């Protein structure tokens, strides 16, 4: 894990990249920020987390880090030890953690619940939605520290890296660390995960709908091994893709409101 601090004071802000090693956008954003060395009025910890997985361009080496929190310094697997090390490093910090996805090119945020943090920050980040996970996605970072997790765009694309750099600047502006960037407030729809949409581990599947757009009851939304999946009731697909997860297509969510 590589930790560098921008600014002189005790950091109360952190930006995090490469919790998943095959999602390099956050690392590009961190490198860009460290190259530019902008004058910050609050110190910022910049953390590249899973360097081992990053070097191999894999999501993780032993266990999925973002399902391994809170971790344990004496655990057998590398990622479980790394989870504990990261939480220690993030103590006392408000954090932006950057990911990328196979589901959608437009940035969105993932939070534990819509709390004052999400309400205060998300409308100032360029994003198309905020997803509340509840407890449907395992032991991720959002359950253990004050963090906004952002999916910056499609995995491995230049656009995701550009988006990540912009989200970092917006985050550091709204939290008062940068003062020479202007941010606009947007209206951001919120969604809550309702259920997983499972998939067969082998065979063909096709997602037939677009993430964040409502699927009406009776509409076919995916095909798996030539079998059509039809919506029983209305839902919003989120994090849906053919290849993003091994055992699921994504999630069915509900619209819950709008921030900003
Ligand atoms: Zn990720």
Question: What does this protein structure show overall?
Answer:
The protein has 260 residues and is an alpha/beta fold. The chain folds into two domains: 2-174, Zn peptidases (Aminopeptidase); 193-259, OB fold (Dihydrolipoamide Acetyltransferase, E2P). It has helices at 25-36, 51-56, 78-90, 116-121, 158-174; strands at residues 2-6, 13-17, 44-48, 94-101, 108-111, 130-132, 147-154, 188-198, 205-207, 220-224, 227-230, 236-238, 248-259. The strands form two sheets. The protein has a ten-stranded mixed β-sheet with strand order 1-3-2-4-7-5-6-8-13-12. Strands 9-10-11 form a three-stranded antiparallel β-sheet, with no helix packed on it. Strand 5 (108-111), helix 4 (116-121) and strand 6 form a beta-alpha-beta unit. Helix 1 (25-36) crosses helix 5 (158-174). Residues 19-20, 23, 66, 99 line the site of zinc ion.
How would you summarize what this structure contains?
This protein is of the alpha/beta class and 260 residues long. 21% of the residues lie in helices and 29% in strands.
In spatial order, strands of the major sheet run 1-3-2-4-7-5-6-8-13-12
Q: In CATH terms, what is the fold-level topology of the largest domain?
A: Aminopeptidase
What is the CATH C-level name of the largest domain?
Alpha Beta
Number of strands: 13
Number of domains: 2
């Amino acid at each position: 894990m590589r930790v560098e601090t921008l600014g002189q004071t005790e950091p109360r802000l952190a930006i995090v990249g490469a919790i998943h090693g095959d999602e390099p956008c956050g690392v590009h954003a961190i490198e860009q920020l460290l190259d530019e060395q902008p004058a910050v009025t609050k110190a910022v910890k910049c953390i590249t987390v899973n360097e081992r997985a990053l070097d191999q361009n894999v999501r993780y080496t032993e266990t999925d880090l973002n399902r391994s929190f809170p971790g344990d310094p004496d655990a057998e697997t590398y990622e479980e030890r790394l989870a504990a090390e990261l939480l220690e490093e993030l103590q006392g910090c408000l954090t932006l953690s950057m990911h990328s996805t196979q589901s959608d090119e437009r940035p969105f945020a993932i939070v534990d619940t819509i709390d004052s943090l999400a309400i205060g920050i998300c409308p100032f980040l360029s994003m198309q939605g905020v997803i509340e996970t509840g407890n449907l996605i395992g032991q991720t970072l959002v359950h253990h520290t004050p963090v906004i997790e952002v999916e910056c765009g499609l995995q491995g694309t230049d656009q995701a890296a550009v988006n990540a750099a912009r989200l970092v600047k917006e985050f550091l502006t709204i939290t008062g660390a940068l003062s020479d960037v202007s941010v606009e407030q947007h209206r951001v729809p919120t969604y809550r995960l309702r259920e997983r949409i499972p998939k067969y581990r082998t065979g063909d599947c096709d997602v037939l709908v677009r993430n964040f757009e409502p699927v009406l009851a009776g509409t076919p939304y995916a095909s798996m091994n030539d079998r059509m999946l039809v919506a029983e009731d209305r839902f919003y697909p989120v994090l849906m893709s053919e290849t993003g997860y091994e055992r699921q297509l994504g999630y069915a969510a509900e619209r819950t409101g709008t921030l900003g």
